[in-house]
Every structure is written in C-alpha cells, then in structure tokens.
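Mods, move this if it's the wrong board.
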Amino acid sequence: MTEKQITPVWPYPRWIAHRGAGTLAPENTLAAFRLGASHGYRMFECDVKLSRDGLPFLLHDDTLTRTTQPLHPHDNAAPQASAVAGDYPWHTLAHFDAGSWHSSAYAGEPLPTLAQIARFCISNSCMLNIEIKPTTGTERQTGEVVAQYAARLWKGVAVPPLLTSFEIAALEGALATQPELPRGLLIHALEDQSWAQWLGHATRLHCQAIVCNYELWTAESVALAKAAGFRLLSYTVNDDAAAAQLQAWGTDGIITDRVDHFAPAAKQY
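Not the wrong board. Structure tokens:
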C-alpha cells in the first residue's frame, strides 16, 4: 500500500450529529438539523440519494416505508410507502410527509433536497458529512451526481462537505467527477477483507478518512489506519465509555445520536 500524506489541517469538529439530531427529531430533515444546531452541533451527518430525475435528496432507506407516508394516503395516484424512492421524480417525493412517523409535532415535515440542507449549513456556518446512499443499482451515478451538486452548492465555501459511502463504486464516481472534494470510506464489518485490504481501497480512492463502526476500532486498527495517513471517524457512538476510549486512542470524529447528552463545545473527558 502506498503511503499517503495526511491532510495537514483537519477542518472538521470532533462531534457530529447523526442524521441531524439523532433520534430526537425525524432523521434527515431540516427540523432535525435545526434541533441539532440548537444543542450546539456544528457538523451533521446525513444520507443522500437521487430521485428518478436526478435530484439529490435526503433519505436513508431504499424504500419510503420506514420514515415517510403520503400526505394524501387515499389518493390512488400516490405511490405507496413500500415503493422504492428512487423510482419517483422529485415533484412526487416532495409531497411525502417525513415527520409523522416520529411524532405528531413533526407532522407534515417534508423530505429535504441537498440544496436546502446546503443553504442551512452555509447560512449557519455548519459543516456536513454527506453519506452517499445510492438506491441499489445506481451506485456510480449517485456518487457522480452528488459530488457535482456538492461542488456547486459549496463553491467558494472554506470547508467543503466530507463525502462518504459504504459503496466503493459511489466513491469512484465522486473521485472521477470532483476529485478535490474530501472523501471517506465507510466500513461496517471486516467480513472477508483484512484491515490492510480496506485501507488499500481507501488509498486507491484517495480518501482522507476512514469512517468505521466504532466497535471495529481497537488500539491496533487505530494504529494501522493512522500510520497509513487517514483521519479516523466512528459511528454511531452513544455511550460515555466508548466515546472516552475513542478519544483516548486519538481518533478524529464521533458521530452520535445523543445530541442532548454530549456537549460538542465542551471537553468531555
């Protein structure tokens, strides 16, 4: 594996709010971002995929089942919540309710576009980790389009969004179209690949970061990734002991649901 140079200045804060505000608000909505910001968070993680007509918007799952419902569920023309979101154009998806599943206080909260999230972040001097979350079968295309939009939306902004994905093809698309944007490889499980192989993928993709299921980090894996020149982030960290250990190992970022528990501006440990 070729040795890579670490980014000399890492501009992102340690604490990152998962999907806007963790579980305190409907995930991947502007309402969640506003709530996360009210708790002092200045960096957010979110999931971005494409509508059928190629518009980047926020949604975690392939289908609409878990976190949305039609505003007019008895309209025979409305897609069912079990439908694949990426099969529909944005003008249809814009009419889905992405808040009622969470609580009645958020009823009618819409799915946001990446452009709306960019406006919020830039206006409030916040940073963003965009997880490229392709609809199955659109990995390369989603990486290309999300990177193009991100470059345009954050043009002239001092700190660009960090683009991450579990999908190597998505990161290849992002690298091919907007190589100047920072990237991170997401790892959920080692499976049949060694740490050296995963780090090799990240090096080939010119990633700046490894974003890892926090349970996979050990003193040994942290040392390997740091020696290879990567910044190290962890998801989804919700208890004090895990957060303290990750900081003791010298990792760089913690993605958490517990925005009401961890104070990002304070020295926690």
